[in-house]
Amino acid sequence: MTEEEKKLSQETTNEENEGNQTLRPNVEEKTNWMKEIIEWFMMVIIILAAVWFLTHFIIVNARIPSGSMENTIMTGDRLIGTRFSYWFKGPQRGDIALFHWPVDPDTIYIKRVIGLPGETVEIKQGKIYINGSDKPLKEDYLKETWVEENDGFTFHVPKDSYLMLGDNRNNSQDSRYWADVALEDGVAKNAKEAEKYTYVKKDAFIGKAWFRYVGGFKNLTNTAHYSN
Q1: Kind and range of the H or E run holding 155
Q2: What are the average pLDDT values for consecutive 10-residue runs of the chain, which has 228 residues?
Q3: Is 66 one of the catalytic residues?
Q4: What is the rounded distance in angstroms from the CA atom of residue 211 to the CA atom of residue 217?
Q5: Which of 7, 9, 111, 172 is catalytic?
Q6: At residue 37, what are phi and psi to the nearest 5 degrees?
Q7: CA distances from 49 to 81, 87, 209 (A)
Q8: Does residue 172 have an active-site annotation?
Q9: Element of type H or E holding 5
Q10: Most exposed among 5, 99, 162, 181, judged by the fewest C-beta atoms under 10 Å?
Q11: Residues 6+ apart with CB under 8 A from 136
Q12: One of 6, 9, 68, 127 is an active-site residue; which one?
């Protein structure tokens, strides 16, 4: 190979190397950009999956549409409930709970647990008596003096169910009325069949109200203080 050919070959090699060096940063930059997009995409997927898991298995986020639980919870308030509260034990008297309404399970209600499985609950002159006790429940959470549908009720709660009442007893569609609604809506054929719609079964509970975060923070787990 002549000297001129050697010089030409060296120049060509140098030009190719310079071209490769020019292209390499662009390729690396494009690769880093794509990697960053994939990482952000995966992060969004993980966050969405975590939110879905939390809201479907751990907590429930609810807005209160009516005044049936006033003054404990007001219309328009928002609260967080815990779905896991009833995984290993049943609802307790005084719990504020979210559940599927017996008459129409697609509708979600929020009320207070009053009657437990197997109990006899009597309503007499605005007072509640459990299992024939001569001492009524101490219900400091009621909005006002209870005058509507406040007398003449006796409920024999089935062993797998609960009796639910609102704190605003004068304006609450609760266990006192559901049997009648089931008859009127044609869900039940007769009064005997309608009676079962009075109560909420354990598997119909969604969760226990934990705290209110819109309408002023409020702990909802300690609003009932019974002495009996």
Answers
A1: strand 153-156
A2: 47 48 56 80 81 76 96 97 94 98 97 98 98 96 97 97 98 98 96 97 97 97 85
A3: no
A4: 7
A5: 111
A6: -60, -45
A7: 19, 22, 24
A8: no
A9: helix 3-53
A10: 5
A11: 124, 127, 128, 129
A12: 68
